[in-house]
Amino acid sequence: MSDTVANVDPAPDAADAPGAPKKSGRRLDGETVLMLVVPPVLVLLTFAGYVVWRQTADLTGAELEQLAWPLVVDLIQRHVSLTLVSSALVVLIAVPLGIGLTRGPLRRISPLVVGVANAGQGAPSIGLIVLLAIWLGYGFWTAVISLTLYGILPVLRNTVTGLQGVDPTLVEAGRGLGMSSAAVLLRVELPLALPVIMAGVRTALVLVVGTATLATFINGGGLGAIIQTGISLFLPSLIVAGAVLVALLALLIEWLGRVLELVARPKGV
Amino acid sequence: MWDFIVERREQIAYNTFQHFNLVVQAVLVATLIAVVLAVLVVGAPRLQGVANAISAIGLTIPSFALVGLLLPVFSIGAFTAFLAVAFYAVLPVLRNAVVGLQQVDPTLVESARGMGMSRLAVLWRIRLPLAWPVILAGVRISMQMSMGVAAIAAYVRGPGLGDYIFRGLASIGGANAVNYALVGTLGVVVVALIADALLLLLGRVTVPRGIRA
Do B151 and A124 make contact, defined as CB atoms within 8 angstroms? Predict the structure, then answer.
């Protein structure tokens, strides 16, 4: 099996090599490099700017209270744990579900499931959060559940697409080598589908970290709290500070997703 | 639930229309901006990378944060909502328009030039029509995304159905909380489905016959 993969991969590798004549490969590479380098630099610079502003600006009572470092650190931690817990749940639910939908008799209903999930994605995130809060009450775990529901679609869709995109002859070759269907799944299909699945995971991460901003409406915590307080007290400095912090965190998480995507990519795919 | 809707049918219809209106206007303006940007950028490979990076970074910014950033400058109301929705709506269209224009076969452009068409005519009659299906796919993504952004923008008094969702949130524990939240959420889903169907129809009418799938 590994031979088959090895035979397939020289072409893309050659295109990526420096000085290769193929233009498209290099351009993609340039964008990848750009997206790996620019966001962390941007985040660092902006955060440095925020720190300088925070230490030097003339802040009033309510602003000082909301932007006190211990509180901000706590909100960031809450935001990150909302994001990571929900994203982990998303992967744990969506990947097995996606695998199930590409196997056996369930294969036939997979367009239906993906279609329903697609329509569900049209529901506004804030509506989902409020409805779940009415049903399950306020708090961290309600926020986690709604974020998880919201993040499932991209991963599910990409798992199904990725697995369906695996060349059937490779699956057959694996079976012909005497591998069980579980072994073919684990050692052939999933590694080949991994880049597509990871792209879905990154999309889900971005969706979840952004939507986690709304968790504050149901006392789920997170950096949205600063923006919300700023809007209700009409303190522009708070609104902007909160918005900048959330945006920086989201950029960082997106960047993390990109790094994960690169690291997880099996050699030769 | 049914009584709730019947009692408020005029108001609900009005808000539904407002939601649709806000999103359609924002997406329309965004599409124009995105296509112009894509045309400008597509000639230079380096700028293309920058445009794609901006698009990716822009989509990362949480919509509630963007609404917050706009608020001190443009104050509370419909205009802030419009700007927020339009900002996000530009990004998927931009990305797709760049890809679509890139995919146009250069030999076609060359033969059109050889036939004596001006650059502008080539753009208008060859490149944009050929890229249109891809651009339209971007518009569909934009439209769906904008529905949710518009709902969030209701927090700063933007028009539309998001208002019901926040009213539901404010009245949790009260008798009508579920009704408000459900009408708001499902209303947005319905508006999104209708808008998507209209875009599909638009595709049927506007995609040139020669490249229809």
Answer: yes
